[in-house]
Structure formats: C-alpha cells, structure tokens
Write a structure and sequence with these properties.
Blueprint: E1 5-6, H1 8-21, E2 25-29, H2 35-41, H3 43-50, E3 57-61, H4 67-71, E4 73-76, E5 82-85, H5 88-95, E6 99-103, H6 110-122, E7 124-125, E8 128-129, E9 135-141, H7 154-157, E10 161-165, H8 169-176, H9 198-227, H10 235-242
Parallel strand pairs: 1-10, 2-9, 2-10, 3-6, 6-9
Antiparallel strand pairs: 4-5, 7-8
Helix pairs in contact: 8-9
Length: about 240
C-alpha cells in the first residue's frame, strides 16, 4: 500500500480531522515510535472538542485478546437467557465517553478479526453499542515488522482512514531534550522525579544534539567515501607483491 508518510505532528492533525468527521483512523508505523503515547496524549484535547472535560484514553491490545474479550462473554441470566457481557476496556467504552485505542490492530488472532471489524465499522461490541461520545483510534506496526502481522482485507482498508507515520529527527531530538510538551499537546513529557539529576538531563540533551547533527554527518561520510582514492596498489607495489620471496 503506497501511502505518504506523516511525521508525528501531522499524524496528530490527521487523527483530529478523522475524529471530527466521525471516521476511524489507522496509524501504521514501525515499532517503538510512540504511536500509543501520541494517542494517549491527544485524548484530553479530543474530549474537550467533543464537550467532555473528563475523557480518558482506554487501551485495548488486540494481539493478546480472545474473541469473547471483544464480542462479549456469554452469561446466563436469571430468566435462562444468554447475554454477552463486556469486560475491561470495552465495557468502559460502552458505558462512558472515552478514546478507545485499539492497539496492535494487525496482529490480532483470526478469531478476533471479525468482532474487531464490527467494532470499528458498526461501533458495536458483542450486542452492546459504544457510548455516543466514544471515539476509536486504531494503531498497528507495519505488517512486515510485526510477528504474525496480517494484510488488511479490502473491506477493512476501504472503511478506515489509513496513514503511515514516522517521527522526524527533530521530533526525536525534542523528546531526548525534554521539549515535547508543546509538540505533543502536553501528554508526552519526561518524568519530573527527584532522581532526575542534572547529569541525566545533560546526557539526554547530548543524545538529542546527536540526532540533530546525524544528517550532516551522514552526508559528510557519503562525500568522503565518494572522494576517497582507489585502494588498488600502484604499479611498483603490485610488482613487489607479485615477486616471489
């Protein structure tokens, strides 16, 4: 799937546009680039835009779920009828407004794919609809970079707003320098603890500075490699090397 790659800031803007339009976004990217942290960080701003001052981020990791976790657990009621009861994060998403983050969306077991598809397309978990104020964001690693990754079906790909995300070098530098709050809407800050010493802060800043100069260092290395003389020995040296000892 040939898609343009967005940095984390543009991914935030795209997710916000999906939420306003009532669509479900799927953010794809390599492991460990803060996709989940980014979704958590923007939950409060999404809630405020929808008129909910208390709007938590609720995470459901689909790769370690069973079909009953998404479709509901069958429970026998007092009148001998059977109802599918929700538990955990999906119960919260059905009972109150929240940002439901479906993480590892493309590595869920085959038995979970059907209930997960209904959840994203129909906003129904088991037999219970989600709260009208609940919004869904799907996250996934690229299928070729995740164990057990699956390719999306056409039915799923046509109904989700799919975007590829990859942080800029400057965004990574901002994280290590402790300056991500403005960029990530206040939810992605370094811990402020007593053990966070001046020395640690200096080391993090040094790592951030290294990320800033890496592109220029890479270009320098490429130019020096292209300009280096041939390693082949000259005529005199070839003769000396070929003469018997």
């Amino acid at each position: 799937m040939d898609l343009p790659t967005l940095n984390l800031h543009d991914t935030t803007v795209a997710i916000a546009a999906c939420v306003r339009a009532g669509r479900v976004p799927l953010a794809l990217g390599p492991p460990g680039i803060a996709k989940t942290t980014l979704a958590r960080a923007i939950a409060q701003s999404i809630g405020e835009a929808l008129g909910y001052p208390d709007y938590p981020a609720v995470i459901c990791i689909l790769s370690n779920r069973e079909s009953v976790d998404v479709g509901g657990w069958p429970v026998v009621c007092a009148d001998d009828t059977v109802e599918n009861k929700l538990v955990g994060s999906l119960r919260i998403a059905a009972e109150r407004p929240c940002l439901l983050i479906l993480d590892e969306f493309l590595t869920c077991p085959q038995s979970v794919q059907g209930p997960a598809l209904r959840l994203t397309l129909e906003r129904v978990a088991g037999e219970q609809p989600l709260h009208e104020g609940t919004r869904i964001i799907c996250l996934a690693n690229n299928p070729d970079e995740a164990p057990g990754g699956i390719q999306m079906t056409a039915a799923l790909a046509n109904r989700l707003v799919i975007m590829k995300c990859l942080p800029l070098v400057t965004e990574v530098a901002d994280f290590f320098e402790g300056q991500p709050a403005a960029r990530f809407d206040g939810g992605f800050t370094l811990p402020d603890e007593a053990t966070w010493t001046t020395r640690k802060a200096q080391l993090m800043s040094s790592v951030g500075s290294l990320f800033r100069v890496l592109p220029s260092l890479r270009r320098r290395l490429r130019r020096s490699t292209m300009a280096s003389p041939s390693p082949r020995p000259g005529p005199g040296r070839r003769a000396a090397m070929s003469s018997p000892r």
